[in-house]
Amino acid sequence: MSPISLPAIATPALLSSIRAHPQLPLQTWYFITGVTLSVLNRPDEIPKVFQYALEKGAGRTDTKPEHEERLEIARKMREALCINALLALKGATPPALLDEPLGYSPTARPVEVYDIPPSQILHRGQTFFDKIYGKVSKRVMGQMDRSGTEDLGITARLMYGYVLSNTSVLTPAETSFVLLAGLIPQDVNPQLKGHLKGATNNGATVEEVRAVREIVIRICEASGMRSLGDSVPGGWGWRSDVAKL
Description:
This protein starts with 11 loop residues before the first helix and ends in a 7-residue tail after the last strand. The chain contains 12 helices and 2 strands. Helices cover 58% and strands 2% of the residues.
């Protein structure tokens, strides 16, 4: 059986409109788009986004980037993606923009894993978690600890410590934008509500958060997602309105 031919999502018209959004934080459109496509299981579209950013630049106007900006684009894309999406991105990345194993690490995570006491990294992660969730952080972590297995709380602490709280490549606000882009396609409003507010706790403005939400929904709709109501009880989409600030 031959592979199904899927429709294009990351068209030049869509990318141009996303990049030009006046409230979207500068130089974030490409990795927000990449994360959304990754969660939509369309890693095949990510090279298009990357090439568009390398040709047009990370800003709102067409400016062919120099090497340092191209390297920043590549690193932010890599920091935001995982597994299949990363492999698709690597296939489209010029060798000069790759960070190879045993070479320079922009995140210094190998040092954090092997040379820094875990308690120090876990404390940093807890601080990051507390900042996102604010006054409800203890309750949220407690719910995970009492989820029926302590592994959920442990996994969250490891993720926040070793991954999310490392802000060497993405700022705290940009990390929150990645989380929003990952949650909206999954139709998980309970988690999304906390991270919408958490993005403002991480330094984003309300207008910026709303803009990120808007473009992620636009990408999802371009992929075929729709609002599901009583007349459309099944299918691929959102079962209720996407949470908002």
